[in-house]
Amino acid sequence: MTLKIKQAGALSLIQDLGRFGYQDLGATVGGPMDNHAFYWANRLLDNAPNATQIEITMGPFSAKFEKPTTFSLCGADVVAKLNNQTISNWHSWTANTGDVLTLSFPQSGLRTYLAIAGGFDVPKTLGSTSTVARDQFGGLTQQGDKLKDNDLIPYQPKLIGYHRNVPKQFIPDYAQTIRIGVLPTYQFDQFGEQAITTLFNEVYTVSPLIDRMGYRLSGTPIEFPQQQFVSEGIVPGSIQIPANGQPIILMRDRQTIGGYPKIGCVCNRDLNLLAQATPGTKIQFFLQDLLEAEAELQQEQHYFYTV
After folding, report:
1. What is the pLDDT of residues 133-162, one digit of tens each?
2. How far apart are CA 178 and CA 205, in angstroms?
3. What is the pTM of this model?
4. Does the pLDDT value for residue 257 go beyond 90?
5. Measuring CA to CA, which residue among 220, 263, 227, 264 is closest to residue 243?
6. Contact 133, 142 (CB under 8 A)
7. What gap in Å lies between CA 165 and CA 27, rounded to an integer?
8. Cis peptide before 60, with omega less than 30 degrees from 0?
C-alpha cells in the first residue's frame, strides 16, 4: 500500500510539524514552510495536526495511488488533475487503485501540500518525519533526502465518505505584493530612527536567493553601525541585518544560532505567506501589534487542535 512517485519535481519533501527539543544539540525544527496550508490539508481529512504530508515545491509532480484512499491538496495555485480530470485545490478527493495525480508548475504561490487520510506511514528520526537536508534528518530514508522518481511512500488505505473544501475566507491570496507584519524584538531599539523608517517605508523585493533556511531580500540598505554580537538562539521569522544592510528572513530550516543584529521577527501568519512568495515578489513591512498576533495564533491553534 504505497504512493508511487512518478515525477518528484524540483523539491518534494516528507514533512510533519517539525523536530522539537533538539535545538540545543544544533538540530533545527524544520517542518512545513507554510503551516497554514499544512494544517488545512490535514483538517480536511480529520487527520491529527502532525500527520505526515508531502511538501511539493514548484513541481511538476505526479504520483500513482496503489490503494484506495482520500487525499487533500492545499497551498500554491496549481493545475491539479486526477486521471487527467481537473480537480480543485484546498479540497479533499477520493483516489482509487491505480489513479494518477498530476500537479503543474504553480500559477501563483510556490508550495503545495499533499495529505492522505491517516497520514503517510514514514519512520521518525528524533521524534519527527520532517526532512532537513542540511542536518541529514528525516524523510523516507531518515537521512534528509528529497523524494525522487519511483520512490514508494507507505500509507494505510482509508476512505472518508465525504469531500470537504476550505472556506474561501481562509484561502490566502498569493499576490505579487504582500504586507508582512513585524514584531519588534529586544534589539529593535538599538537600530536608529533612520533604519526603522527605512524598514517600514521602503519596498523590498524577494531575491532569487531563497530556500528553506532563509529568504534574502533586496532594496534600500538598513544601516546598523554595530555588527559585533555574540551568537544566540534564533527563531523562524527573525529578520537579520547583515553588513550590506539587505534583510534576511529566517525560515523553517534556519540554523539554531546566529550573530547578525535582528530588527524584528515576522509574525506567524505572514511567515506562511512569505513561504509562498517567489523571486520578484514585493514586500512591504508594517509594525505588528504583539497582542493581536498572539490572539490570532491562539485562535488558529485552538481550531486545528480541537476535533
Report:
1. 988 999 999 999 999 999 999 999 999 988
2. 10
3. 0.95
4. no
5. 227
6. no
7. 36
8. yes
- Looking at residue 26, its pLDDT comes to 83
Residue 227's pLDDT band (boundaries 50, 70, 90)? low
Cβ atoms of residues 3 and 58 within 8 Å: no
Return the pLDDT at 292: 92
d(CA 237, CA 270): 9
The identity of residue 144, as a single letter, is G
Q: Within the chain, what is the greatest distance between any pair of CA atoms?
A: 62
For residue 123, count CB atoms less than 10 angstroms from its CB and return exposed for 0-12, middle for 13-18, buried for 19 or more: exposed
Mean pLDDT for 239-249 is 95
Q: From the centroid of its chain, how far is CA 207?
A: 18
| CB contact at 8 A, 46 and 14 | no
Q: Are 270 and 181 in contact (CB under 8 A)?
A: yes
User: 244-281 burial, b for 16+ CB within 10 Å, e for fewer?
Assistant: eebbbbbbbbbebebebbbbbbbbbbbbbbbbbbbeeb
CB contact at 8 A, 54 and 12: yes
Confidence at 8, pLDDT banded by 50, 70, 90: very high
The pLDDT tens digits for 102-124 are 999 999 999 999 999 999 999 99
Q: Please tell me whether residue 113 adopts helix, strand or coil conformation.
A: strand
Mention every residue, 6+ apart, whose C-beta is less than 8 A from residue 155: 1, 2, 3, 67, 69, 116, 118, 119, 120, 121
In this structure, the strands spanning 282-287 and 177-183 are parallel
Among 214, 221, 216, 177, which residue's Cα sits nearest to residue 195?
A: 221
Show the cell assigned to 300: 488558529
